[in-house]
Amino acid sequence: MLSYRHSFHAGNHADVLKHIVQTLIIESLKEKEKPFLYLDTHAGAGRYQLTNAHATRTGEYLEGIARLWQQEEVPELILPYLEAVGSLNTSDELRYYPGSPLLAAKLLREQDLLMLTELHPTDFPLLRTEFSRDKRVRVCREDGFGQLKSKLPPASRRGFALIDPPYELKQDYSAVVKGIVEGYKRFATGTYAIWYPVVHRQQIKRMLKELEATGIRKILQIELAVKPDSDQLGMTASGMIVINPPWKLASQMASILPWLHKTLVPEGTGHTLVEWVVPE
């Protein structure tokens, strides 16, 4: 199945959380001069127009990035993320939102490399066009999970892999764990960030247990819920599972999340979480 289109969901609360965590990891890696690889297993189209039919049909960005966009004062830690979004919007109007690969490209340096993978027949050409003039970027139409085996370790021995499949297939949850195991065998010092949606809580609990069973250490869970868990259709929360996180990430997200939850969920429903699944 390749029916999922992120253009319907771009800029929603899940994107905001995912991209803030992504930005903090990248900013941490940039503290050393040595280059690193950014690997995006499910890259999407690269950028999304928030005024097109897909985005306006769902309006999800209005309860996501639009709420941050309206704030006069924001935590300093999220300024690089908001500045990257702002660079796509030349006026005060919020028209475009960067997917994870374009956000990474905005943040990475000249010496860093980006490896982007996408299989969707519509999104792949858009992704390839978006980065056609960026010499730091390689765009592949291949299985994203397979890149964790074939593209690691990077020559620089420094790298960050973002894994955010659509989870339109139940086996994606197990495929994430298998992909992590393959990548970790080859590149145990890399940082791996797994995005997940909370639709059925039991699926997330199973995935966490499978990750624990791998024996991998330093696994951090970060979660933002906009509603209580439910057995009804729809995503109530999303999160990031980060393996080998930068040492500051847990404290950074613990400081950001209360403000982020209050801004995105003014009614106060849901919860936030920063917790070690497996400590060092």
From TrEMBL:
The organism of origin for this protein: Proteus mirabilis (strain HI4320)
Lineage of origin: Bacteria, Pseudomonadati, Pseudomonadota, Gammaproteobacteria, Enterobacterales
E.C. number(s) listed in UniProt: 2.1.1.266
Reactions mediated catalytically: adenosine(2030) in 23S rRNA + S-adenosyl-L-methionine = N(6)-methyladenosine(2030) in 23S rRNA + S-adenosyl-L-homocysteine + H(+)
Annotated S-adenosyl-L-methionine binding sites: H19, H42, S100, E118, D143, G144, D164
The protein's name: Ribosomal RNA large subunit methyltransferase J
GO molecular function, one term: RNA binding
Family: Belongs to the RlmJ family.
Subunit structure: Monomer.
HAMAP family cross-referenced by the UniProt entry: 23SrRNA_methyltr_J
Catalytic residues identified in the record: D164
UniProt GO cellular component terms: cytosol
Swiss-Prot/TrEMBL site (Interaction with substrate rRNA) positions: Y4
Main function: Specifically methylates the adenine in position 2030 of 23S rRNA.
Entry-linked InterPro entries: DNA_methylase_N6_adenine_CS (IPR002052), RlmJ (IPR007473), SAM-dependent_MTases_sf (IPR029063)
Protein's GO biological process: rRNA base methylation
Record keywords: Methyltransferase, RNA-binding, rRNA processing, S-adenosyl-L-methionine, Transferase
